[in-house]
Amino acid sequence: MDIPKTPARFDATELATLLDGRWAGVRAKVREALEGTELPPGDHLDTEAHRAQTLEQLHLLVKSGIPEIGFPVAQGGRGDVGGSVVSLEMLAGNLSLMVKSGVQWGLFGGAVQALGTERHHERYLPSIMNLDLPGCFAMTETGHGSDVQHLRTTATYDPATEEFVVHTPHESARKEYIGNAARDGRMAVVFAQLITGGERHGVHALLVPLRDEQGAPMPGVHLSDCGRKAGLNGVDNGRITFDQVRVPRESLLNRYGDVAADGTYSSPIESTGKRFFTMLGTLIRGRISVAGTAGSTAKLALEIALRYATARRQFDRPGTSEETVVLDYLAHQRKLLPALAKSYALHFAQEQLVQTLHDVSVSGDERAQRELESRAAGLKAVTTWHATHTIQTAREACGGAGYLAENQLPQLKADTDVFTTFEGDNTVLLQLVAKGLLTDYKDQFDELGTVGMARFVADQFVGTVIERTAAKSLVQRLIDAARDDEDAVFDRGWQLKLFDERERHVLDGLARRLRRAAGKDADPFAVFNNAQDHVLRAARVHIDRVVLEAFVAGVERCSDPATAQLLERVCDLYVLSTIEEDRGWFLEHERITPRRAKAVTEAVNGLCQGLRPHAVELVEAFGLPRQWLTAPIATGAEHARQDAQRAHDRTLG
Amino acid sequence: MDIPKTPARFDATELATLLDGRWAGVRAKVREALEGTELPPGDHLDTEAHRAQTLEQLHLLVKSGIPEIGFPVAQGGRGDVGGSVVSLEMLAGNLSLMVKSGVQWGLFGGAVQALGTERHHERYLPSIMNLDLPGCFAMTETGHGSDVQHLRTTATYDPATEEFVVHTPHESARKEYIGNAARDGRMAVVFAQLITGGERHGVHALLVPLRDEQGAPMPGVHLSDCGRKAGLNGVDNGRITFDQVRVPRESLLNRYGDVAADGTYSSPIESTGKRFFTMLGTLIRGRISVAGTAGSTAKLALEIALRYATARRQFDRPGTSEETVVLDYLAHQRKLLPALAKSYALHFAQEQLVQTLHDVSVSGDERAQRELESRAAGLKAVTTWHATHTIQTAREACGGAGYLAENQLPQLKADTDVFTTFEGDNTVLLQLVAKGLLTDYKDQFDELGTVGMARFVADQFVGTVIERTAAKSLVQRLIDAARDDEDAVFDRGWQLKLFDERERHVLDGLARRLRRAAGKDADPFAVFNNAQDHVLRAARVHIDRVVLEAFVAGVERCSDPATAQLLERVCDLYVLSTIEEDRGWFLEHERITPRRAKAVTEAVNGLCQGLRPHAVELVEAFGLPRQWLTAPIATGAEHARQDAQRAHDRTLG
């Protein structure tokens, strides 16, 4: 098999510029701001010292001007929604700082901005931005993390005093894992079932003071500490219980639902469900930030592991007097290089997602918003799992050195572990993506009626249509020209077509399967549940296709031929290692022949060997702030040691 | 498809007895000893306090009589090698304690026992057993972790003073990650290149004092601290550098090589390489203990996740007024139940491995010893990866609760993460297994000559032949009666045959591939390296077969019909989920049809649903000491909360 050529040299600046993308300015600003600022992650500190340090670091960020990027110009911000997401993902080397920033400015500030109205913006946003008012985003409850539509905290309107009474009816309803709650938060956006005049209107958000200026809890507010966690111990997660806490009527963040002084409820959106999911949709930025940050942590872990792997040697190399550099082993390449290729793919997909977020935040286009929500859910799941898997692999690839705190991987692993859970459990998110895709098959479920339909398909997205991403015409052109000969595994059209057909086949099959089972008048839970593996697969293959199209579009934007050629090989490795991983499905459904499957494996091996010389340059090009790379094994210690050993061995020699 | 029946009831005592196996007595002794002893894992402590606590706990273990199990009767031990491994794996709830015990009694004490002679036994073993002499096992160096045959520390004999001079020539040669070195160790078994009369005789072990009675370092010994690690912070890992340290001639552990007063070297084994691997072989107990402990931690993680999953509810169940118990979701079952089935399979394989270790330690049979080394290497790799994967999955399955330290999973994850690295890097171990298997194909490499041969096949095992495990005749009988009809996926003979044929096919193919490539007069490194993925696969499928045969033999020992029936289903789930995972290979090599592959997936779903009601009983039957289960989510808190919520919801009507 002829593996397509990898260029010997390419333009690293060209590549870095391409990866920096639309928000290159924000990336440069953060790099510059961090350079002069000491922001150590603090994993060696005890909990209280770590929390104190993280709060201090937030104040340093305020001075840098980074937090204001995403806030409205009217309140002194920059009004750059996309930029705010990109700036957070640049904090990958100190995840307590990133998460606490995300809580303060993304979740708390973001909710006031998205769900509140002018009176809230004017009164609170300035002091949220400058950290005078540290706050919480109190949605999750002990009993309801994924199913937030059914959380149990109540906010009952009392027209006599024109107040809401916020209350926690039982232990399952207390607010749980709330960042900023254990130590620093003075106010919270509290999500609660709104009741007025004896009628329930679904979940709404209110501003509730938690602590006074001296840090003492407000009357009726009970705060406790979630205690030590696997990681992120610089973030003070806590629990909040409300005992008939009264707040003024104006505390309601009333953009999507309001209560008049006499208790009359009004909303621009009639359906309780649609209203709730519209509100949730405006908070999508947090989920996108987590995906972006997860992507960055995988890059950082790969940079550490790849730098070490190009210096570390082990076992004599037969026929030479030297030991073998570990990245020369195929097994080591296979651990790290497909993960690097996937990091590239996800980088371009994330860039596209942030662009959509930014553009939708300006245009307000409802259909684009639905698609954004689906993409955000899917990419968050795929990217956070990628981070978990990649950091684990990097740790193992660094052996015992990877287990030492000084080499950063332990902290990265521990801090990111919850990324697959918070801002939406990954399995639940994939299910949402699949349900959204099934709305395309609405007609097939007609016989089930509206209620039956809702059980199977989107109960929160209006539905996301399977259609081409931004790269529409390019992708279609490549597919139309797809080859199917011996070397087709490297043909982009063939690859795109394979992903495309897999998605359609899985979705068609799922729709048929559900309809068939439902037709039997079976228990609706059982029908959907028995196909749950199929449902999750539908979401995964959909995201695979979206990610690949983003990668293809990204390569297309590259104007330097050698750099583009290099990226084509990285893209090949992403595609072919993805196919290899799922070749069970492709073979089972006779989409590839056994012979072709073996060729894919051979191609992955060849691409790994071809890209190996460029591994470190490829990972450097992501341009993570240099401050975050502190691991001695990745910053020269191993090189120095190998040199000393070889010098000594020669004296014996 | 008809999924074979799972019994409604079975005899839990029968199952527990079967799992306790040959060392039921040791297991009972440890359970009893732990019941009255407080041994909290201490993950909330700072490093110094954690180390101090762990040392204290080791002294408590001494009182329990557990450490003496594996030591010779002559020195007051019980002489029960197998029992000593089993006792360590019972410490899964406090891994700093387990690892520090393993260092002191398994590695340090074990090396003195295995490599020393009577003079060392009499002088040192009693004070090693009672912890008067805390010690280290100083093998790994900064520059050589996997390739320990080439470590660089030297021990040069000086006949003038009848002393060895132990020396660290450069930084790469310092001893690294050595347990007990940073704080408590007073003596070390040091592995070094032995030089006498200017001649090198390969790696040998010597006893070198590290600290005096007051804890001060001995002259020429430089000790430093590896610092904070991802986990196991109760173990004081450190670095040791020797600056021309002199020890008496009698310090050499001289069972396999000795130096006379005049400097003459002698050994019962002529070849330097064979001598070294024979010495390593006697230390196999440590590797087997790690496999056993890894298996236990996976069981503990599964017990936490399964108990929580049977109490936790999320999302309304359509058609009822209740929320769905999360273990009722197929996706949740698929996360946890195949892992539970694999834990069963590995449990039986580990039991068999410990038996072989024990019996070989009595018989001294060399061929059995080689097979033991291969099995130990393979099972250590497979079981530690299983633990890493399962604990990760359990953490995610418990959502945010799984991220809280109080729920144990963070500590389990952090502590076990290095298991895939220490006592042999998993990738390196699998390669050793494969090389051992290739010695069966010796003839095919004849043209390469002895040197060429050595590059491809066992350079350390004499070779392990592919042959049936203990269950020989039973397995052969089942294979002979293998069916191949519609429902064959549940036929044990068909399953065994599939695993068997896969192993032979992969190995045959590998041997052919290597010979073909080698024939071209190519770079021997490149030949082997280009096939490295194939090499690792050969080892994996070999271990899969060994594990399955152990499981089948285990079920055969069960006399209660209902319990046996239940185990048959667990075994089906292990086999079929393994096939499903590797169905790419089976399809690619036309060992199963696409139709059969789909049937396998359907069978896995059906088995998950069938076993779901017994999940908690199945994991309880492993009989881990109850002291280790402290997670509130697994010990009633979630049940209580759900009850309170439902009671409250009912009052709302």
TrEMBL record, chains A, B:
Residues 281-438 form the Acyl-CoA oxidase C-alpha1 domain. Residues 136-245 form the Acyl-CoA oxidase/dehydrogenase middle domain. InterPro entries: ACOX_C_alpha1 (IPR055060), Acyl-CoA_Oxase/DH_mid-dom (IPR006091), Acyl-CoA_Oxase/DH_mid-dom_sf (IPR046373), Acyl-CoA_oxidase (IPR012258), Acyl-CoA_oxidase_C (IPR002655), AcylCo_DH-like_C (IPR036250), AcylCoA_DH/ox_N_sf (IPR037069), AcylCoA_DH/oxidase_NM_dom_sf (IPR009100). It holds the Pfam family ACOX. It comes from the Bacteria. Residues 496-634 form the Acyl-CoA oxidase C-terminal domain. Its cofactor is FAD. Keywords: FAD, Flavoprotein, Oxidoreductase. Belongs to the acyl-CoA oxidase family. This is Acyl-CoA dehydrogenase.
